[in-house]
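[job 4471] stage=fold_predict status=RUNNING
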Amino acid sequence: MNGTAYTASKGGSKIYTKGAAVELAKDNIRVNSVHPGYVETPMTMQMKGSDDFKKGSLSSTPMGRGAKLEEIAYGVLFLASDESSYITGSELVIDGGLTAQ
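[job 4471] inference complete, writing structure tokens
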């Protein structure tokens, strides 16, 4: 059931992003979300079965590797910058092509 709750929370965050973006646009507030794929962090390395999880994640990712923390941060930085001033309600997927398949 843990996987189901995680999946539901991901879906909820996507829909919440869109609803909040529409509601807050009139106040010039932009709302976007970032959806990373596998990122090797201390948390993912400590997970039970982390080696198997990593192997499975990387084998199904077209780029064949996990994201570097900086790569996720650059996406967030872009969304927080003036360069994205006309972007709201969007989902920035940073997953090495996983969802493109």
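[job 4471] summary: The helical segments are 2-24, 42-46, 50-59, 69-80.
[job 4471] exit 0
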